[in-house]
Amino acid sequence: MNLVLPWHHLLWQQMRYCWQQNRLSHALLLAGPPGMGKTLFAQRLANLLLCEQPVEVENQAHPVNWQPCEQCQACHLVTVGNHPDLFSVHPSAADKPISVEQIRELIQFCSLTTYYGRYRIVLINPAETMNHHAANSLLKLLEEPPPQTLFILVSHQPQQLIITLRSRCQLLNFSRPNRQLTQAWLQNRLAISPPTLNNKADIALLLNLSAQAPLLAFALVETGAMTQRQALFDSLIRLATEKMDPIKVVAQWTQGETVPILPWLLSWTGDIIRGALTGQTRYLLNQDYQTHLLLFSQQVDLKNLFSLLDQQIEVYQLIRANTPVKVTGLLESIAIAWVKLTHSPRRSSL
Ligand SMILES: [Zn+2]
Asked: What processes does the entry annotate via GO biological process terms (predicted)?
C-alpha cells in the first residue's frame, strides 16, 4: 500500500480532520518546491475522497490514518486514470501554458451531476502554468464554487499565481519538511534499492544538492545523475590541470542523454564564490568536492568568477526558454572561460 510520505503526516492528519468534521475547504493550494511529493499527496487525497470505503490504518511507522481501500471500483478507476468525478488539468506539453479552453472544459465538467454522488475532484498541476485568461476564468469558478467539489491546485511557484486566486485557496505548505524524517526516509529507500549510497554524509549531501527535496534527492541516485555529475566534475578538473581541449570536453558533455550540465556548473561556481568569500568549506553545498572547490576559490580571480557566473546563468536561461540557440557553441564558450579562469601559475596544484 502506498502510504503517506512521513513528512506529509501532519498535513494529511489536518486534511483528514477537516474531512471528518465536514470542514474541508473547497479549494486547496499545495505549495512548495519540486520533489516534496505534492502531486502524490494531491492524488492520494483525491483517491481518499472518492473511495467507497476508506480504511483506517495503524502501524508503528504510520499513526492512525485514513487511507483509500484500493479495492473498490472507485479506487480502481482512480488508479487507471478514468474516474468520471475526477478532472485533471495540466499543460498539453512541457513548454505550453494551461489555456482558457481547458478551464472552459473544466467549467463544463463542474456543471454536470456527479457520477457516483460523492465528491467531485479537480486537480490543476502545476497551477502556475495557467495563462492570465485561464487563471481569471478559474477565479470566477472559485468565487461561486459548485457543491461537493474540491479544487486541488499544485504549485511549485505559488507566487506566480494571481493574488485573488491564492486568497481563495487554503494553503498547504510543503516547503519545510522535517529534516529528520526526510533523512530517515531517504536512508531507508537507498538501503532498499540497489544503490549503496546510504551513510549519513551521503544522505546529507544528496539532500543539500536537492534543496532538501527528498524525492529529488532519491532521483539523483536512481537516475544515475550522481555518476554523470562525477564525470562532469572530473572533466572540469582536467580542463584546469591537463590543459584539455575545451572543444573535446564539450563533445563529451553533449554525448548521449542530455546531462543537466548548467545546474551543476552553477552549483560549483556558487560554492567557489562561497569559498573565496569565507575561506571555509562548511558553507559549500558540494561537500564531497570541498578540497578541489576550495583550491579553486584560492586560485581564481573573483571578478572573473562572477563574470563566469553571469555567463552561465544567461546560457541556462536561454536553454530553459527553448530559445533557438546552438547549445554546443555556448557550452564551448563556457568551457573556454573555465580554462581561462583557472589559467594561473598555481593551477597545477589542483
Ligand atoms: Zn476504495
From this structure: DNA-templated DNA replication
pLDDT in tens, 240-292: 877 788 898 888 888 766 568 899 999 999 999 999 999 999 999 999 999 99
Query: Is the pLDDT reported for residue 339 higher than 90?
Result: no
Give mean pLDDT, residues 18-46: 94
CA of 50 to the centre of ligand 1 (A): 7
Q: In terms of C-beta distances under 8 Å and separation of at least 24 residues, what long-range contacts does 97-104 make, across chains too?
A: 97/129, 97/130, 97/131, 97/134, 98/124, 98/127, 98/129, 98/130, 98/131, 98/134, 99/131, 99/133, 99/134, 100/131, 100/133, 100/134, 100/137, 102/134, 103/130, 103/134, 103/137, 103/138, 103/141, 104/137
Domain edge (last residue) among 173, 189, 204: 173
Range of the domain at 345: 226-349
Beta bridge partners, 56, equal: 66
Q: What is the pLDDT of residues 97-151, one digit of tens each?
A: 999 999 999 999 999 999 988 899 999 999 999 999 999 999 999 999 999 999 9
The conformation of residue 298, written as its DSSP 8-state character, comes to H
Ligand 1 centroid, distance to 146 Cα (angstroms): 24
Ligand 1 centroid–CA 71 distance in Å is 5
